[in-house]
Every structure is written in C-alpha cells, then in structure tokens.
Amino acid sequence: MSRLQYHRTSPFSLPLNAGKPWVTSLGIWGVGVGTAALLFLSVTPIVKKGLLVNVPLLGSHYEDKTPASDKPF
C-alpha cells in the first residue's frame, strides 16, 4: 500500500515559474524601447548633456561644437 506524502511548496514558486517564459521577450522589448527613447530624445539638451555626452565612445559625436557667436541665445 502506498503512503500519502505531502510536499510543501513555496508561495513564491508559482509566480516565478509562470514568469520564466516571459523574461527573454520582456528583456528584448525593454532594450528596444530604451534604444528608441534615446533615439527620439537625443535632440533634447537635457538628454544630450546629461547622458549622451558622458558615454565614452559616443560622447565626442554629441558634443556641441557650435561657436558661441553662432548661438542665438
């Protein structure tokens, strides 16, 4: 005759197991949305000065090299 055995499961195991198939897809979408946001916001001065100029390899591309005499304000 077989014995009845009870196995305890963690209350966190169901959400963790249910979310595993979505991790890769959400990661790819997150990178895509972040890249698109940087692309569209790269023309704003706040993003350009605060973030893009500080990137090591791309910083020189986003520096403002316009002479002060050519700036209207």
Task: Summarize the structure in words.
- This protein is an all-alpha fold and 73 residues long.
- It has a domain at 40-64.
- It has helices at 13-19, 23-41, 45-52, 59-62.
- The protein starts with 12 loop residues before the first helix and ends in an 11-residue tail after the last helix.
- The mean pLDDT is 88.
What's the tally of helices?
A: 4
Helix content: 40-55%
How is the biggest beta sheet arranged? none
Stretches where pLDDT is under 50 for at least 5 consecutive residues are none
Overall body shape: rod-shaped
Radius of gyration: 25 Å
Give the N-to-C terminal Cα separation. 89 Å
Give me the secondary-structure category.
mainly alpha
**Average pLDDT:** 88
Number of DSSP-assigned strands? 0
Topology as a string of helices (H) and strands (E): HHHH
Please state roughly what percent of the residues sit in beta strands, choosing from under 5%, 5-15%, 15-25%, 25-35%, 35-45% or over 45%: under 5%
Pfam families: QCR10
Keywords: Membrane, Transmembrane, Transmembrane helix
How is the topology of this model organized?
Layout: H1 13-19, H2 23-41, H3 45-52, H4 59-62
Q: Summarize this, please?
A:
Keywords: Membrane, Transmembrane, Transmembrane helix. One of its GO terms (biological process) is mitochondrial electron transport, ubiquinol to cytochrome c. The protein is built from 4 helices and no strands.
